[in-house]
Design brief:
Blueprint: H1 3-19, H2 21-28, H3 30-41, H4 49-80, H5 83-88, H6 94-123, H7 132-153, H8 160-170, H9 172-177, H10 189-195, H11 199-212, H12 217-240
Helix pairs in contact: 1-6, 3-4, 3-6, 4-6, 4-7, 4-8, 4-11, 6-7, 6-12, 7-11, 7-12, 11-12
Length: 246
């Protein structure tokens, strides 16, 4: 791994995103619009209680899902167009490529998550007991996890349509079992055990903890689990990344 090459890859990706206005809008604006839509749906029901219950989980869910989708499709496009093969013909390793992408999308994730959290807490009055900055850290970690998983699954797709098809396998089960709809300790025993090995469960737990208490010990523990999953996904991605699509 060469740090100079890694950051050169990250700079290249950020430049591409900046020039692609539609992708930039999807990454930065869409989570805010979805959070606002949820608030609007429940504005006149429950006195904001429903939004306070669902909002924290969705602050973890939206960045994760969007970053997974964008990263998997973008990485596959690099490979299918031959760009990745040309890059790897240079003195650059697979880990340089993946870490460069992870850093670039991590920067985007930081901006995306900060905007969504500031909107939810500062404008939509989401009730949070813990520090708001830690809420942002959890959202960023979850978005980076989505990017890492997107990089990993892109190695197994041959078309952009196939990359999108991985969402039902990698994303939707985590949404259903993360505790957003039913508390994880109230799930059937088998499903509870499955949820224990899904990273989105820990991000949701961290978000919900911040709405109930000012204690941050459990939150940092959950963030550590999410970060470990992200690093594992990057390592697996480096091991399985192909230079080009057959």
């Amino acid at each position: 791994m060469n740090p100079r090459i890694t950051f050169a890859v990250a700079t290249r990706v950020l430049t591409q995103i900046r020039r692609d206005h539609r992708t930039a809008a999807m990454l930065l604006v869409l989570p805010c619009l979805l959070i606002t839509l949820l608030w609007w749906m429940f504005k006149d029901t429950g006195g904001g209680v429903v939004f306070d219950r669902l909002g924290p989980g969705l602050l973890a869910l939206f960045p994760f899902t969007i970053m997974f989708l964008v990263t998997s499709v973008t990485t596959l496009r690099e490979r299918s167009s031959g760009t990745l093969e040309r890059l790897l013909a240079m003195p650059m390793g697979k880990l340089d490529f993946l870490l460069g992408y992870a850093i670039a999308f991590g920067v985007v994730a930081a901006v995306q998550s900060a905007l969504a959290v500031l909107l939810a807490v500062g404008v939509l009055d989401l009730d949070v007991q813990g520090p708001v900055w830690l809420l942002t850290v959890v959202a960023i970690a979850d978005a980076v996890l989505g990017s890492a998983l997107g990089l990993f699954v892109s190695a197994f797709a041959t078309t952009e349509f196939q990359a999108v098809q991985f969402m039902p396998a990698f994303v939707i089960p985590q949404i259903l079992l993360c505790g957003l709809f039913v508390a994880r300790d109230q799930l059937p025993t088998v499903l509870e055990k499955v949820s224990d090995v899904l990273p989105l469960s820990y991000a949701t737990d961290a978000m919900q903890t911040l709405t109930r208490t000012t204690s941050t010990g459990d939150v940092w523990q959950n963030v550590g689990v999410v970060a470990a999953f992200a690093l594992a996904a990057l390592a697996l991605g480096a091991a399985t990344l192909r230079r080009r699509t057959p």
